[in-house]
Specification:
CATH class of the largest domain: Alpha Beta
Order of helices and strands: HHEEHHHEHEHEHEHEHEEHHHEHEEEH
Strand order of the largest sheet: 3-9-8-7-6-4-5
Number of strands: 13
Helix content: 40-55%
Largest sheet: 7 strands, mixed
Radius of gyration: 22 Å
CATH superfamily of the largest domain: Type I PLP-dependent aspartate aminotransferase-like (Major domain)
Bound molecules: pyridoxal-5'-phosphate
Number of helices: 15
Shape: globular
Strand content: 15-25%
Number of domains: 2
Oligomer: single chain
CATH architecture of the largest domain: 3-Layer(aba) Sandwich
């Protein structure tokens, strides 16, 4: 007899009782507007603290014009993989601008950072290697590491002593990689990357840092983790999403010229996927120009908002993560409590991001709040006021 688990219908069954019991489903909302001070969700005006639009550039007129001009000049899609159909000339500018901005010799642009993080390990790591990773590292990194089939070991979150202990014992491997995020997106902690980098040098390991929540948010002129950590001539692998503070799409891999040229021929996640569209490249180029010029005033706004939100949450009795980046994370506990709190915010017209198991460990649910520079001060005042009228049940 056929095992019932072998039916597709049985395999795709999942338990959504938390959402149905609480009567709120915050996932895959239908948005009917651009992301300005307010957004419209199912026809209702709301304050959006759920996106990673840190610098508030997602609706910037200059970037929108760059998209439109590129569409008019080059069309919409390359309709081919980059190795077969090429890129437009915009790509050379993107490579130059991004490399200089991040502080690496060269970069490649993947359709997404999820693909980039998956792709790098498959391309450069081997079965006889060891990959050490921060236990809170993003799913895209973990899935990429798993695909290599080598030994993988987590180190305690942001804990350089634990990392050194493991590095010291890891002598029987062809190569050791050390993988971390820069800014951890669920809680806003910043990795001690300078120390991690120095340990990698000491133990001849290869550092890999995912700067998705660091680029545009930390470092000199918003240039991310490498300038933040005072690292020049970076010897390692750098990745980042361009879909957060940089308000576009795609993922970057950065590093030495040799690494980039190798990946351009041996990273299947890049080679066998349709080339990034010209409009997105034009958008990225324009965004970097804007961030280079306007980072300090935009950053002042988001760090101020974030501090105000944190103080108000604490004043109103909420436990928040010890965030150094402009991210606030309410420690809510069980999945039920987390979704319930998100629902209370929703009913008061605020969108938040609830993280529940399996995105975070069981009973370690969080509500993430990110206030972008596009929000008005009076909107933040409304948010601070309503914290008085919600509670963790
Ligand atoms: C830390 C981190 N890495 C990678 C990604 C994936 O980035 P992208 O959306 O460009 O695929 C995300 C997005 O959720 C992220 O938060």
């Amino acid at each position: 007899m056929m095992n019932p688990e072998n039916n597709l219908k049985d395999r795709v069954e999942y338990d959504d009782s938390v959402l149905t019991n609480i009567g709120y489903n915050p996932y895959y909302l239908s948005i009917n507007s651009e992301q300005s001070d307010m957004i419209t969700v199912n026809g209702r005006k709301m304050i959006n603290l759920a996106t990673n639009n840190y610098l508030g550039l997602s609706n910037d007129e200059r970037i929108k014009s760059a998209y439109i001009d590129a569409i008019n000049k080059y069309g919409i899609s390359m309709c081919a993989t980059p190795i077969a159909g090429g890129y437009t000339e915009l790509f050379e500018t993107t490579q130059k601008k991004l490399s200089r901005f991040i502080g690496v010799e060269n970069v490649l642009v993947y359709p997404s950072c999820y693909q980039a993080n998956n792709g790098i390990f498959q391309a450069v790591a081997r079965k006889e290697d060891l990959i050490l990773f921060d236990r809170y590292a993003h799913s895209s990194l973990i899935q990429g590491i798993k695909s290599v089939g080598c030994k993988m070991l987590p180190f305690s979150h942001n804990n350089v002593e634990c990392l050194e202990y493991l590095l010291n014992k890891s002598t029987n491997f062809a190569k050791v990689f050390v993988v971390t995020e820069s800014v951890f997106s669920t809680e806003g902690a910043i990795a001690p990357f300078r120390e991690i980098y120095d340990l990698c040098k000491k133990y001849d390991a290869i550092p890999v840092v995912d700067d998705s929540h660091g680029i545009g948010v930390i470092g000199k002129n918003g240039r991310g983790i490498l300038t933040f950590s005072g690292i020049e001539n970076y010897e390692g692998i750098y990745t980042s999403s361009l879909g957060k503070a940089l308000a576009n799409n795609c993922g970057v891999v950065g590093g030495s010229k040799e690494l980039i040229s190798f990946l351009s021929f041996f990273s299947s996640h890049l080679i066998y996927s349709t080339a990034v569209s010209p409009a997105v490249l034009a958008g990225i180029n324009k965004t970097i120009e804007i961030v280079e010029e306007e980072y300090y005033s935009l950053a002042k706004t988001i760090y101020t908002y974030s501090q105000e939100i944190k103080s108000s949450l604490i004043e109103n009795g909420f436990k928040v993560s010890d965030s150094k980046a402009p991210i606030n994370s309410i420690i809510a506990g069980t999945s039920d409590k987390t979704v319930d709190l998100a629902k209370q915010l929703f009913l008061k017209d605020v969108l938040s991001t609830p993280f529940i198991f399996p995105s975070v460990p069981k009973n370690d649910g969080r509500i993430r709040l990110i206030a972008g520079a596009n929000l008005k001060e009076c909107t933040i005042d409304r948010v601070l006021e309503l914290f008085k009228n919600i509670r963790l049940n």
